[in-house]
Amino acid sequence: MFEVDSSSSSRDLRGYSQGFSRGASFNSSVNDADRQLRVVEHAYSFVGMHCIFDSCKVSVTILKFGHMRSDLLAYGASDGSLTICCVSEPPAILHQLKGHSKDITDFDFSSNNQYIASSSMDKTVRVWDASQGHCIRVIYGVSSQLCIRFHPVNNNLLFVGNANKEISVMNFSTGRVINKAVFENEITAMDNDHTGQLIFSGDAQGCIYTVSVNSHTGSISRSHRNRNGRSKCLITTVQYRTYSLLARSSVLLACAQDGNLYFFSVALEIKGYLTLLCSLKLAPQVHSIRASFCPLLSLEKGEFIVSGSEDSNVYFYDLTKPKNTCVNKLQGHGSPVIGIAWNYGENLLASSDSNGTVIVWKRAKMS
Description:
The protein is an all-beta fold. About 0% of the residues lie in helices and about 50% in strands. This is WD40 repeat-containing protein.
């Protein structure tokens, strides 16, 4: 297991890779149960830590790579700071954006990565020039702003979910709210389909909504509401994927704070109607831990996701296997792992923890 040294703000650890085989998982001990779980472990094996960013001394709540970029990474923290990094040679912090006074709850890159829009518990949305590293607009709200997305086609539209039980549509150029839809509970997580015609959102009581969008006018309307089981727990992650080898359709991943992971098929022809395909019950969470789909691997059968955890590990699961569902784990963090993100090339995985450490892991190449 790696020990994290907090003496520097960023460190290149590619040299560490030489000590690990392609099939290695970063376990301090390996038991018989672990060995039985390694049928597909080679699919998501890692050769070491690529680099570490440890300048932040508070919880890193959210991290993302830039669109269509493998080297641009940003992360937001509970002190309101937003950090932009480069993970190519040599890894470096490019900008530290300061302006929010409370937790960063979410952020999103514009399609060309020129801008970042961030939401915060301080009731504001801020728009940043990512290349220059300064704030160009502050949009004030009446409640905590909890999740945010640029429209994938029309970047002049910003969608923001808030604690006032709304999804607001904002004009990026003016900062004005041009439309909104009201829901039953706080909107805590959000994603959109690749066309921007649908928004998928989760709320504080475990509901998943599909929202129809007019890409030209920004008007939005609720299409479907989905509740699974009796759980009424906050949704921390909603992630859309255009295609799944298993479902043979578009799919959606939802993660709740009670440890439930849900995997839906998405019927685009019925305005994004969701059908639950399978679910996985993990340990309940104290933090708002996030999960993500794993890269598609044509030779592997299953539906793989990666998630942080309260026990400081990064876990890989196959949602189609209720027994022996864990296929690998990474150890290296010293506190609960909250954020998870893949880069565009899918060769790097970034994870963040409650002590402010961000680790970028390098995935093994498939032969």
